[in-house]
Design a protein that fits this description.
OB fold (Dihydrolipoamide Acetyltransferase, E2P); magnesium ion binding; Phenylalanyl-tRNA Synthetase, Chain B, domain 3; 7-stranded mixed β-sheet; Phenylalanyl-tRNA Synthetase, Chain B, domain 1; protein biosynthesis
């Protein structure tokens, strides 16, 4: 986010003399530039000018020599806080005694003194303290300690007025050094939306401040004198043979030479100070000037060492296999979509100099011996620059601006401004020749209507408000007929392409505060929907069971399907690919919640957790065959039903899911011993808890389903209104290979439910059950059935056999072995019988047992185990 020093901003727009960072941020927020942070003066308190009256060098036992200095800091500040036993100097004026370890100043010099109560950068508070046998009553300051950076003359040590950091400054003891050195500058950091790229410059922010307050704006670009007007500069060739989406990678390239620069010239203190306040580190005069002009005007620049450059400069796409070592010392393999700056300096006559609009290379880097340079100022395609920066994970100040759109009228102006600053502070000359290859495309006019803003925003704007707002942002407005307008956007606003963009500008400049807030009236008595209550109930049930809710992003890598052991024909591989993903490593939308939940579990364990018990409710997505692009409806009225249907049809299939992952110890150690580990039965129980919370009951059947262990996985079903059942999820122990892939504890388990389907299957009406008054009868049964018979089928037969007397049926044991027979299993159920009319007799219980045994025999062929 750009940082705006107020004194720099005040050069381009009239700021009130007493304007604070908070007031400026408030004004900018009215035109859509939101405050990100405020930075006050880096130095506060009594920082004053002092004159060195006496300097006594005192060698110490450790071999170090310190200076005991008496300093006159003006009548208002001269207080002797030194120990009375120390000898007092014989001067008539009082002074302060200060210990100092630097040796680059002498008696009579004017220095900068921070008195007790001063706070220096880094929240470093100054106080009187006893040291080396004296009371040091303040501190004599260096440029580094005041946040001014290295001394321009390369001299380390104390600031001495008249040289170095303070060259040309004169003052008297006691004068305010904060104002003298420009240390009171406040800074506003703002948040710039992607469509407002011109606000990544002081020029753009000053223009917006003028819109917000009516203050007079002075365009710094208009004040730049163009001196080089002759053709014949460095030859440049624009050869983009594979433009992206039909857009040329470079539409304009300016190359301007500066000769005879003093390589020892230093960046002026005011410029270094401004760069530091804006968040950039001063490096050298040439580099600092290019950064300064970029921050001021918004046009990124690059400087080449002219002695290392071999013309012609060619702008082209990369060839497969080409490599480049960028200025950050990283060797990069280039992609054919990358736009490059090249010259003829390579072994084969072709050398890559840099990634266009992103970062330069090492071969032609400006160094401490550079005396002649070539300044590059170009207009690059935003999409090309954005893709290159993301592909190489190389965000830069230049790419931030190019990918949002840079004023195509700026290259020649910015190159001359930089050249003039270099000549002013580093000597040299600017030849009359210049290269300006390419062209500046004319902005496309937009047809609009005087009443568009009123129709879209809903409030009446006068004709004057409409035209004056558009003209204020730099548009040329021509009338067409009675109400028609033909609006030509300015070159620095590439975001203005349709009439709705103009409506937004009118609403913004007239003031968002003028738009009344009309809130819809909520209908009374409805409350939450059934689905909303169900989602909340399911989440609450898992939280009450001890799980922690997390929120993983829906983006996954293509490799996750293999890591979860999906089959080649698994429908969960049909993922939606995002055209412009946040990360190139995760370009797909998840088709199952576990795809993003398992990496989250791994991350928590990697940060020191010894067990995991997490859950998430979120959306999952499935691709639809033959999806086209969604239509973009007009903003003037509500989309039609046909448009809404087309938009929905273009979206991927989406549903809400609920998933959980548990593994490791289920609780903390205690004097009772180690807690039981989470297991597959816990995953099943948690799934049932969530379903029960929304009023549904799950049917469990054994299955094989990735990513679960083939022998410890369950298919989860619900009964539908038509009497059938449908699969709504799966639960069980995760496959050992999946556990290894995600570094999860042994025997970790999970479940995932289609929560929307579970909620839909819950009965609409919950019937109250009377409290029983008669005692229950408890019976146990063990039935031998075929291994393929699900326990739920046996349970259903038991309920049929018991009829109205069945209160609860619970499976408590499953047994297989030689005693049962090959292909058989034993299912043991605990059954509670109860009558609502009387206590059950032994005869009634016996008859019910016989009906249950017969029902199981008839339904699934089950035999009561002896």
């Amino acid at each position: 986010m750009p940082r705006i020093p107020l004194t720099w901003l005040g050069e381009h727009v009239e700021l009130p003399a007493t304007a604070s960072a908070l007031e400026v941020a408030t004004d900018l927020s009215r035109v859509g530039l939101e405050e990100e942070a405020l930075f006050g003066a880096q130095v506060t308190g009594p920082l004053v000018v002092g004159r060195v009256l006496e300097l006594v060098k005192e060698p110490q036992k450790n071999g170090k020599t310190i200076n005991w200095v008496r300093v006159d800091v003006g009548p208002e500040h001269n207080e002797d806080a030194d120990d009375p036993k120390d000898p007092q100097p014989g001067e008539e004026r009082p002074s302060r005694g200060i210990i100092c370890g630097a040796h680059n100043f002498v008696e009579g010099d004017l220095v900068v003194v921070s008195l007790p109560g001063t706070v220096l950068p880094g929240d470093f508070a100054i106080a009187a303290r006893k040291t080396y046998g004296h009371t040091s009553d303040g501190m004599i300051c260096s440029g580094e300690e005041l946040g001014l950076g290295p001394d321009p003359d390369g001299e380390d040590g104390i600031i001495v007025l008249g040289r170095g950091h303070a060259r040309g400054l004169t003052a008297e003891p006691g004068d305010d050094a904060i104002a003298l050195l420009g240390l009171a500058d406040e800074v506003v950091e703002i948040n710039v939306t992607p469509d407002r790229g011109y606000c990544f410059s002081m020029r753009g922010v000053a223009r917006e401040y003028g819109h917000a307050t009516g203050a007079a704006f002075t365009d710094p670009a208009a004040a730049v004198e163009i001196t080089a007007t002759e053709a014949g500069g460095v030859p440049v060739q624009l050869r983009d043979e594979a433009p992206l989406n039909g857009a040329e990678g470079c539409t304009r390239f300016v190359a301007l030479e500066v000769e005879g620069v003093d390589p020892a010239a230093q960046t002026p203190r005011w410029m270094a100070r401004r760069l530091t306040l804006a968040g950039m580190r001063p490096i050298s005069l040439i580099v600092d000037v290019t950064n300064y002009v970029m921050l001021d005007l918004g046009q990124p620049l690059h400087a080449y060492d002219a002695e290392k450059l071999v013309g012609p400069i060619t702008v082209r796409r990369a060839r497969k296999g080409e490599e480049l070592t960028t200025l950050d010392d990283v060797e990069r393999t280039l992609d054919p979509e990358d736009l490059l700056i090249t010259d003829a300096g390579g072994p084969a006559g072709d050398r890559v100099l840099g990634l266009a609009g992103v970062m330069g290379g090492e071969d032609t880097e400006v160094s401490s011996t550079t005396t002649s340079i070539v300044l590059e100022a170009a207009t690059f395609d935003p999409v090309t620059v954005a893709r290159t920066a993301r592909r190489h994970r190389l965000p830069s100040e230049a790419s931030k601006r190019f990918e949002r759109g840079v004023d195509p009228q700026l290259p020649l102006i910015a190159a001359h401004r930089a050249a003039q600053l270099i000549v002013e502070h580093g000597g040299g000359t600017v030849p009359a020749r210049v290269t300006d290859e390419g062209s500046v495309p004319a902005p496309t006019p937009i047809s609009a209507d005087l009443h568009d803003a009123e129709r879209v925003v809903g409030i009446a704007y006068t004709d004057e408000q409409v035209t004056s707002s558009l003209e204020a942002i730099g548009c040329t407005v021509a009338r067409e007929g009675e109400d028609g307008l033909l609006v030509t956007p300015p070159s620095w606003r590439p975001d203005l392409t349709i009439r709705e963009d103009l409506v937004e500008e009118i609403a913004r400049l007239v003031g968002y505060s003028q738009i009344p807030s009309v809130l819809p009236t909520a209908p009374g008595g409805r409350g939450l929907t059934v689905a909303q209550r169900g989602r909340r109930a399911a989440r609450r049930a898992l939280a009450e069971a001890g799980l922690v809710e997390v929120n993983s992003a829906p983006f996954v890598a293509g490799s996750v399907h293999d890591r979860l052991r999906y089959g080649t024909d698994d429908a969960r591989r049909e993922a939606v690919r995002i055209l412009n993903p946040l990360s190139e490593d995760e370009p797909l939308l998840r088709t199952e919640l576990l795809q993003s939940l398992l990496p989250t579990a791994r991350r928590n364990l990697g940060r020191g957790e010894e067990s995991v018990a997490i859950f998430q409710r979120g959306s999952v997505f499935r691709a639809r065959g033959g999806q086209g692009a969604a239509p973009v409806p007009a903003a003037a009225q509500r989309p039609s039903e046909q448009e809404l249907e087309a938009i929905l049809a273009a979206l991927p299939a989406q549903t809400g899911a609920l998933a959980a992952v548990v593994g490791g110890a289920s609780g903390p150690d205690s004097w009772q011993g180690e807690p039981a580990p989470w297991g597959w039965t816990d995953a099943l129980d948690l799934a049932r808890r969530a379903a029960a919370a929304v009023g549904a009951e799950l049917e469990v059947r054994q299955t094989e389903h990735a990513p679960f262990h083939p022998g410890r996985a369950a298919e989860l079903r619900v009964h539908t209104a038509d009497g059938d059942s449908r699969v709504v999820g799966a639960a069980g122990e995760l496959h050992p290979a999946v556990l290894k892939e995600f570094d999860l504890p042994a025997r970790s388990a999970a479940f995932e439910l289609d929560l929307e389907a579970v909620i839909a299957a819950a009965p609409a009406v919950v019937r109250a059950v009377p409290v029983p008054t008669y005692p229950p009868a408890k019976e146990d049964f063990a039935f031998v059935v075929e291994e393929s018979v699900p326990a739920s089928a046996v349970e259903a037969a038991i309920v049929v056999g018991a009829g109205d007397l069945a209160e609860r049926v619970h499976l408590f044991d499953v047994f297989t072995g030689e005693q049962i027979g090959k292909g058989k299993k034993s299912l043991a159920f605990a059954i509670r019988l109860r009558s609502g009319e009387a206590t059950l007799t032994a005869e009634q219980i016996g008859e019910t047992r016989q009906r249950i045994i017969a029902a199981v025999q008839s339904a699934v062929g089950g035999v009561l185990r002896a």
